[in-house]
């Protein structure tokens, strides 16, 4: 049976029965700080969070909304004793393990959470919804096989990162992302990637950009090539700019997307990371339509230059979410 696919992040609606989505990122930051504090006190690993968990009406808001500012949260609505829904549970759990932190799976038994099911106007079981940055998006309803669901998950992960700047880190929750000492060895470098690095080090920015793109054409998931490409493109953009003129234009035109983007690029190249991010976050709050989207996408590209795990990126993602919602 083909699942009825309703997924469209562009059609996201406000999550019913929870606070405004604008608070999601702030809550997430508070939760991260609290988890880190408790982990430090107990000696536990703050990153050791479950991929799969149950949620109920009582803790739905406090648990799901803040978490959705860190990673896409899939909500699986099922019912004990109802065959089609019960059979969907192991399928979704296996996918959660397979994707290993790119999303988390929250299971809701509607027999025990009938009011929540009514608020969300569920029509069928099983139903899978997604929460991203406090926004609720239908994924599919009715029984579905793993091979039918994977394309939906791939689309979800891609658009959540591109539109909201939210991406789960593979292995971050399972612990598989941390290599053991025996595995922590230096591997031979891809020759094509080595050539790209050499071009970047030599200042051949055009050559570096093309070389990194060649690597990514063959290996779309190569994170080292993505980072190198982002850096090379940034350096290429600021080549030949007059810093004084760029900063004067940005000061004179606070709502001009291109002026603020150019100034942010210079900030980043100069090592003023927080200034670059803050400038573009503020510009997102002052602009609308295509201009706003242009600034948002550029900010996400600058996140790639620094790296998703950098605390400054985490902080800026939260600030961006608050501006957007």
Explain how this protein is built:
It is a single chain. It is built from 13 helices and seven strands. By secondary structure, the protein is of the alpha/beta class. Strands 1, 2, 3, 4, 5, 6 and 7 form a seven-stranded mixed beta sheet that branches. A hairpin with a 2-residue loop joins strand 6 and strand 7 (135-141). Helix 7 packs antiparallel against helix 8 (223-238) and helix 8 (223-238) crosses helix 12. The longest helix is centred in the N-terminal third of the chain and has 19 residues, at 24-42. It is globular and about 70 Å long.
Q: Which tags fit this structure?
A:
10% strand; alpha/beta; 325 residues; globular; 55% helix; 13 helices; 7-stranded mixed β-sheet
Low-confidence stretches: 8-29, 178-188
H/E topology pattern: EEHEHEHEHEEHHHHHHHHH
Q: What form results from the Cα inertia axes?
A: globular
Q: Can you count the beta strands?
A: 7
Q: Which value, in Å, is the CA radius of gyration?
A: 22 Å
Number of helices: 13
* Oligomeric nature of the chains: single chain
Spatial separation of the terminal alpha carbons:
36 Å
Largest sheet: 7 strands, mixed
Percentage of residues in DSSP E strands = 5-15%
